[in-house]
Write a structure and sequence with these properties.
Layout (H helix, E strand, L loop, with lengths): L1 H12 L4 H9 L2 H8 L1 H9 L8 H21 L3 H28 L13 H29 L9
Helix pairs in contact: 1-2, 3-6, 3-7, 4-5, 5-6, 6-7
Length: 157
């Protein structure tokens, strides 16, 4: 969030970046959309301790959900639709990640019991906490925009 605030300040201060800043000031969901890109990295990092190749399926499905969320965001005309698209995609992709972690961790054929130091519930809870942080950081600018302009429609071009 600090990098996002720094980017906004630099865009406001630098003359060549002034159009970007004015566009951002008119639609804060653009900042949310920029932060949304970090969600793909968060999904892949959720599986960083998993040694087996089966994790790639869950990462792929979660990433597809995030791409679909970005597509819906870009096609939406209302602020609340854009915010809802980002929220729903983050929630669904992290649900896929949590389910995948639970399945992979609980299967003794994929992860030997000797190598486990905690339960599948703690793995899922870790993913739920990650979801909470992602939603808080990504949705904060969009919620600000919705509170300031609740029924604003976006103009194309």
């Amino acid at each position: 969030m600090g990098i996002a605030a720094f980017t906004v300040l630099i865009a406001a201060a630098c003359r060549p970046l002034r159009p970007f800043y004015l566009r951002l000031r008119d639609d804060w969901t653009l900042l949310s959309f920029g932060l949304y890109g970090a969600t793909v990295m968060a999904v892949s990092m959720a599986f960083e301790d998993y040694p087996h190749p089966h994790k790639q399926l869950y990462i792929f499905v979660a990433s597809l959900i995030l791409v679909a969320g970005a597509w819906v965001y870009l096609r939406s005309a209302h602020l609340w639709q854009r915010a809802l698209a980002l929220f729903a995609a983050i929630t669904l992709s992290m649900a896929v990640a949590a389910t995948g972690k639970a399945i992979l961790y609980a299967n003794p054929l994929l992860w030997p019991r000797e190598a486990r130091g905690f339960t599948w519930q703690s793995e899922v809870l870790c993913t739920v906490f990650l979801w909470g942080w992602l939603v808080a950081v990504v949705m904060a600018p969009a919620l600000l925009e919705l509170l300031l302009h609740p029924d604003k429609s976006l103009q194309a071009g």
